Amino acid sequence: MNVVKLSEVIKKPDIRAEIIPVMRKGDIFVYPTDTIYGIGCNAEIAASVKKISDAKGRKEGKSFSVIAPGKEWIWANSIISEANKKFIDTIFPGPYTVVVKAGRNAPKSAVSEEKTIGVRFPKHPFVDIISEAGVPFVTTSVNISGNEPAARIEDIPPDIEKIVDWVIDAGKITGHSSRIFDLTTDEIKILRY
After folding, report:
1. 181, 190 in Cβ contact below 8 A?
2. Measured between alpha carbons, how far is residue 25 from residues 7, 44, 111 in Å?
């Protein structure tokens, strides 16, 4: 497991140049966001997504949200009304998740049984790297399902730590999970405040 300080990832082009290709190929990362630490990988690499799901003890068939590499990706991979596109433009980037109808090309690992997808676009330097990699990135809290999320890399549960390829250390994060909006209809519903 490679542990790198967030400041080094931001400031050192050689580290970014090492991270981006492995991000594309499916390496598993623990990384900071604007809310809490997440664990994720390229959402299009099913084997890596399954490793995360198994390590968390997640119910089979429960999909993950993704961090979009940009708003254009959201428009291309979901079905959203013009009114809801304007709403997304006002909140992203930010500490929110939107649930939208999945488009035909959305990664299967992120599409729910209801044919929806949860999408994030946080305002955080690590998301710049995801954008540079150009891949949708699984995002879920670093914890065993039902337990409190990790606030520091020292809090990563052993079952999760053993599947992780990279840890991006930003020190202690004291945020909370993102607010969730249901945008599957023109009526905006708050699912989690």
Report:
1. yes
2. 23, 9, 20
Q: What is the pLDDT along the chain (193 residues), one digit of tens a residue?
A: 899 999 999 999 999 999 999 999 999 999 998 888 999 999 999 999 999 999 998 877 788 999 999 999 999 999 999 999 999 999 999 999 999 999 999 999 899 999 999 999 999 999 999 999 999 999 999 999 889 888 899 999 999 999 999 999 999 998 777 889 999 998 888 887 6
Q: How far is CA 98 from CA 38, 92, 173, 179, in A?
A: 17, 10, 22, 8
Domains plus CATH for the chain? 2-192 (3.90.870.10)
